From TrEMBL:
Organism: Roseburia faecis
Molecular function terms from GO: ATP binding; glucose-1-phosphate adenylyltransferase activity
Listed Pfam families: Hexapep_GlmU, NTP_transferase
Name of the encoding gene: glgC
Annotated NCBIfam families: glgC, PRK05293.1
Protein name from the UniProt record: Glucose-1-phosphate adenylyltransferase
UniProt-listed GO biological process terms: glycogen biosynthetic process
Subunit structure comment from the entry: Homotetramer.
Segments forming domain Nucleotidyl transferase: 7-259
Length: 403
């Protein structure tokens, strides 16, 4: 039985600009928003949009991500026909290859897509925070009679040179594509979310693979080739919340925006568009009698006896009495001990901040400023001081200072 639309989710990225947070973790598996991981957003968008067949292409540090996805049950994607499928590179009769680029990753899984004989394929990114109805996007694609459509957002002109840009006419037909140009002709930034007619995508993937000079990339190769051939290409304007959380400051900022849903545009409490995740299985959180809480998000299994302001605490976090946590993202099962001060920083999973240690500081002036980052499983020793721009990968000894 053919599927109208199959989703292919690119989730193999290393996320090198997240440094300490992706040492042992694929970027889509990075925790976000208290109880989620980044990949929860495109998976939830799929099921909320009526897409029940998703291929997830993994590569870098896949263990945690594969374990988290499991059979897809949290997202209602545990299906006998369709559902979620993890698609790592594998050995074939002709040999084996890592995914060499975004287009090559899809090319290596043509057989998976053909199994469902879809009319359309949507290509998604596994490393963005976005709430989007893909069924609206598909309807736009059909109405335009498009062969390729890309979701775009208007960005400030002063930032346009940092993006891949679509130049489109008054009917949204794409006439030109610019990859991070010095002199932008448009401020329509590609979100890296594409819909193709499957027959067109398959043709161009095969041709691209046969070109020894190709980088096997959608932005650098497939899209320019479609333009060269005069294909029917359209830009779909998206006006909801979208954020590329590819850097430490952007990830910290997106988490902070969760605490202000009325103004930021990201509402994780929206019953009409739920973001689903795997249940931690932990007990409810516990708030001590002397605890001070102000505009924070506390999730399952937390034990809070200290002060927490404008912060997000993931499951199983402990904040002992006398500890202060402000403007911070503290990931699962981390320990903030008595007298410790944690400000304007990201603490990865299973980290320990010992007594009277200081991590991070409020930025001077306006803007996000520098965000201190502590890697998973790291211990910051008693009385140690970690500066606001520090990136800590290994244990810090008692009383030591790192800037």
């Amino acid at each position: 039985m053919a599927k109208e639309l199959v989703a292919m989710l690119l989730a193999g990225g290393q996320g090198s600009r997240l440094y300490a947070l992706t040492q042992k973790l694929a970027k889509p598996a990075v925790p976000f928003g208290g109880k989620y991981r980044i990949i929860d957003f495109p998976l939830s968008n799929c099921v909320n949009s009526g897409i029940d067949t998703v291929g997830i292409l993994t590569q870098y540090q896949p263990f945690v991500l594969n374990e988290y996805i499991g059979n897809g049950q949290p997202w209602d994607l545990d299906r006998l026909y369709g559902g979620v499928h993890v698609l790592p590179p594998y050995q074939k009769a002709s040999g084996s290859d890592w995914y060499k680029g975004t287009a090559n990753a899809i090319y290596q899984n043509i057989a998976f897509i053909e199994r469902y004989d879809p009319q359309y394929v949507i290509i998604l990114s596994g490393d963005q925070i976005c709430k989007q109805d893909y069924s609206d996007f598909l309807e736009f694609h059909k109405q335009k009679g498009a062969e390729f459509s890309v979701a775009v957002m208007e960005v400030p002109w002063e930032d346009a040179s940092r993006f891949g840009l679509m130049v489109a006419d008054e009917d949204d037909k794409i006439t030109e594509f610019q990859e991070k140009p010095k002199e932008p002709k448009s401020n329509l930034a590609s979100m890296g979310i594409y819909i193709f007619n499957w027959d067109i995508l398959k043709k161009y993937l095969i041709e691209d693979e046969a070109d020894p000079t190709s980088e096997n990339d959608f932005g650098n190769n497939i899209i320019p080739n479609l333009l060269r051939d005069g294909r029917k290409m359209y830009a779909y304007h998206f006006n909801g919340y979208w954020k590329d959380v590819g850097t430490i400051p952007s990830l910290w900022e997106a988490n902070m925006e969760v605490l202000d849903p009325e103004h930021s545009g990201i509402n994780l409490f929206d019953e009409n568009w739920k973001i689903y995740s795997r249940n931690s299985g932990m007990t409810g959180h516990r708030i001590g009698e002397n605890a001070v809480l102000d505009n924070c998000l506390i999730t399952d299994g937390c034990n809070i006896k200290g002060t927490v302001r404008h912060s997000i605490l993931f499951s199983g976090v402990t904040v002992e009495e006398g500890a202060i946590v402000e403007d911070a993202v503290v990931m699962g099962h981390s320990m903030i001990k008595a007298g410790a001060v944690v400000r304007h920083c990201i603490i990865a999973e299973n980290a320990t901040i010992e007594e009277d240690a200081v991590v991070g500081a409020k930025p001077k002036g306006e803007g996000i400023g520098e965000v201190a980052t502590i890697a998973a499983d790291v211990t910051i020793g008693k009385g140690a001081k970690i500066g606001p721009s520090a990136m800590i990968y290994e244990d810090v000894k008692e009383g030591e200072e790192q800037c």
